[in-house]
Specification:
InterPro entries: ATPase_NBD (IPR043129), ROK (IPR000600). This protein is of the alpha/beta class. A hairpin with a 3-residue loop joins strand 1 and strand 2.
Length: about 325
Amino acid sequence: MTLPATVAVDVGGTKIRAGSVIGGVLAHVRSVPTPATAGAQAVLDTIAEATAAVIADTSGSRGAEFAWRIGIGAAGVIDPATGTVVSATDSLPGWAGTDLVSELTARTGLPVRAVNDVHAHALGEAAAGASCGTRSSLLVAAGTGIGGGFITDGHLLTGRNSAAGHVGHVPSAAASGLACPCGGTGHVEAIASGPAILNTYRRLVDASDSPTSTPVAAPVPANTRELAAAASAGDALAVRAFDIGARALGSALGGIANVLSPEAIVVGGGLAAMDEIWWAPLRAAFAAELIPATAGIKLTKAELGQDAALIGAASLWNAEQRETR
């Protein structure tokens, strides 16, 4: 008997993760560095090699024949109908314009479906995570950047040019005048992403008579992880920086909730690993924006971590999964 099996792949700017998904169960996950600076063809070769390794690992441990296919969640704006990278950032040079389906089918001989990586996270949480069982949900990935994916009645909303879900690029009064990585100004990502919160902290330090309100924060944190540790240790300026970013994001999500009215908003990414220093102001600002009709919408933490993208990429092969434009 031949069983359907999927190699699920999550392609980011720094690493590529791949694993087998059979009957909804993820296994044999491996992670390799993304050869980003070597260009798109090197990245495609690495994906094909990881796919072959996962198939070998799975076939060697199971006494069954498999009909393999590939599901990919990849960085960049991905057209799920064609598997083409519509646009991408400098984290993957030369990635824009890559035809993931034809390129990887040529390398592996397997059928391929592809979607944006945050969209894959949204599908994964809806399939087996925090939004499982809901008819509609918004997944928000808050970390180095801020992205999103909206699911309604089991369908992924991709929108015109496959660009739906750019949660980080809604306007925010708190970000007024601040440069956004997209090239614009005043977007919520410019105040609420991890790097933006670190920049806020540095501005607060510069504006303060002393570099920190308590001695525990010296030297000045070099990254968001160190800043989180400083906040947990009692650095008032670090706490304030996270409060500013969390409230800006919470307000933006409240506004989006009023427009989309999903059953649940699920927040993942690096910032979601924070404690109540970040979550409490996020929830408060979110609730303050809701109109009475949307007041019952849940704001909850993602459950699947980085495995969400793999489970979501595999779900592209579910018979009921189709994108909605």
